[in-house]
Design goal:
Order of helices and strands of chain B: EEEEEEE
Distance between the termini of chain B: 104 Å
Structural class of chain A: mainly beta
Oligomer: heterodimer
Helix content of chain B: under 10%
Number of strands of chain B: 7
Strand order of the largest sheet of chain A: 7-5-13-4-10
Amino acid sequence: MRFLRVLILLALAAISTIASQHARAQVTAYAVGQGAVNSVDVGVEVRASVLGRCGFATGGAPSGSVDQANFDQSGFTKDFAIQLNCTGASRIAVSSANGGMATTEAGGTGYQTKAPYNVALYVAADNGTNATATCAAAMLSAGGTCSFAGTAGTATGLRLAGASTKANGSYLRVSAPAYSGTDMLAAGRYADTLTVTVSVSP
Amino acid sequence: MTRTLLISARIALVAAPLAAAAPAAANETQQIAVYGSVASRCWVADPARMTIDLAAMSFRGRAICNQAQPVLLTELRAIGPDGLLVERLPATDMPASLVSSLPPRTAIEIVVSPQI
């Protein structure tokens, strides 16, 4: 019995010692003049990341139009300058509203009411690398299968591996030779609209 | 006695380097308009000199128009000594009695024009 009492007393002493050690691990700061410790430094680790951004630079979006009279005889070509603002890899895509230049004039046997033309993309990175491809407008309409057809996304569009934030000579080119199809183009006004999009490409 | 707890904090910034300049404003979608026109016109398919068979009054020739309603105009023209066409005479206005007075070298000119 006496041994048990001693054992309990020793256990209580050990618990008290452990508790006092934990108490000494805490630091208490006091107002000036009221204690030895007046401030406690606390380290706070802050981590942050910057998501890649991608778009057209201000004033660098391809815009405007081309309007060629008698294009069936002369053909046409025009470049639209592009400047990207992409901090990493990017993709650029193009879609055609009509799949070619279309007229609302009536057609008929032996006549064609949609004129073909080509769209070429050339995009250059800040490190000197570039990506280029050409598609027929017919392959850029809905469901088109050309390399940069559709809306730019993580897996859709022409991919540029490097960052591009400067005026590197990127451009979109529309062109067509003189028309040589079997059916003749009906007289009239022809039109199409291209939609150009860019996206990050992880 | 009031005790005030004063804690000063050191913040250790552990982050990827941030861009020094603010990102430029960017547009992600842009449109380009492509226009063109094809004028109304007609032309002769496989043009060639040919001799008209007066007895048969037939000849082969084909005019193509990129418009649905062309206009045909037929005229008689005398051929000058240098082989060029001169004196345009509307064929419909030629009385039959004057046909014999036509120069020996006379051409029928058929003009096909798009109807505007």
